[in-house]
Amino acid sequence: MSSRMKSRAALTVAALASAGAAALVIPALSAGHATVSALQPQGTPLTGARGTYVVRAPNEREAQKTWKIVMIVPAEVQESISVRQDPHWKIRIFKQDTGKTGEAGSKVFAVRRISWTARSPAAEIEPGMFGEWPVRFVNPATPTKLCFGIAQYYRNVDGTRRKSEIVNWTGDPATAETPRSCFDVAAAPPTS
Fold it and tell me: What is the reported pTM?
């Protein structure tokens, strides 16, 4: 085989490899949205069940880090949600007194939103990576669709947190470019 044919064959192989790699990367990037999904138990969330869920946010920017995530908690789970501590992220829980009293006589609060802020630049989410923050709550007693709005804060193009770019994952799940995260809670099977 001549050197010209070898060179042409090498270029063809390289072009096919690049096209294949691009085909793998493009769907991954287009599917990357901030989400809330079941972690434990996996499968369809059932009514009245306590489960662990994960808030997941991929960094879809080429050169900016994600430094803050804010999740809006749906009314149906505001009284039962709890958050796992993370030493690398400062967690703020925004709650409101419901006027109710719990089993032990303590006040019941509704958690309206939760924010996670990276404590240092090393904890921030690099481009091409994702972050996860576990939460637990009791699913509603009746079948419903739970939707979570998520705001994702990116460092400014100059690398600072001032005047951050914010992507609000709060749009219609069927039509928006930045949809909120929704999942169905199905009826639990009857117990005998």
Answer: 0.79
